[in-house]
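For consistency, the fold was encoded as tokens, which produced the following:
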Amino acid sequence: MKKSIITALACTALVTPAFAQDTIKIGLGVPMTGDYAPYSEWQGARCMAEMINADGGVDGKMIEILVQDSGADTQTAISLAQKFLDEGAVMLGTIPFSDTMIPVAQIAQGYGVSIFQPQSTQVEMHAGIVDNFFTGVSPDPFTATAAANYALEKGVKNVVLLASDEGGSWSAKTPLWFGEVIEAGGGKVLSTLNFSFGTSDWSPQIAEMRALGEEVDAVYISSIMPDVGVLVRQLRSAGIDAWVVGSDGFDDPSLDAIGTDDPSILDKVFFATLAPSQADSAVVQFMADCKEMGIDVPGLFPATGADTVKALAWAVEQSGSVDPETIAQTIRDADSIPVLTVDSISFKETRTYAQRTIPVIGFKDGKRVLISNEIPENVPADW
């Protein structure tokens, strides 16, 4: 038997994980409803599992996706994690914010199980608080740097940063890292303004921009839709023609939709994101294939669940084991792991986050275009 250290519940229990030999279980207690639902990975995980199972599974073992809605509630996510662990899950996914991922990882640790969060970019998860955690992407300082490098290439000098504490470091510090790279490149941060998720009236922030007395070349924000779309519209209505720059939160089909009537509104919008998501990318092809199978995978974030499944399947095949600790060690020791969203990832040097390129997506005639796709070398060192 193994000890389950249930930190969030402040108690200790003895458990016997039921790791079935004929199935490989992944437990996803993720937001299927609510504001965070567009950023959840369960549809992509389910589709990739069906693809692999249809091809005979992994060494004859079928992949089973256990999924239930956590909403945005941490306690619900903790309860679901416990439920899935008791059912024999060998990998978990949860709400992709550190205040949930940390207690879920602490619970899972007693079972030898790790979290594989395919879309989490928050730096808190790489500070050594937990060691049974993987994210399939690179942290926010990398996306901030990739976006800033492109902004500098476009001649951006004066920037305004919009920051919020509501999304942890993702919304609070990513803008500051962007600003740090801009200033290192000879630009200037004119002001850092606060905002809240769910903002539908940006007029106070726009008024502050107007009062600066200097032309704003770019506005940077790490936030979610529909807030970002509203910001773009209101900046343009106010006559502010600055670039609107952001992070992976922009990577939602509803952003593209604001250019339906007037594609030019997106001409000066770009964002650094998790994976290439333009029309000819592997992600878009995967979504089309899933649709033919009767599974709707509505965007990049849902598609990232395919990376969780592919990485787990690869580790089981390589190790010949469904033991979760063996799976985690196999992933951590690998030079290269094939996934969907990019050709391959590796945790060998970074341990908890994937080494991979950072794509920057812009728009031409209202359609996504891949602007750059590199690993930035000038990432701020203070994260």
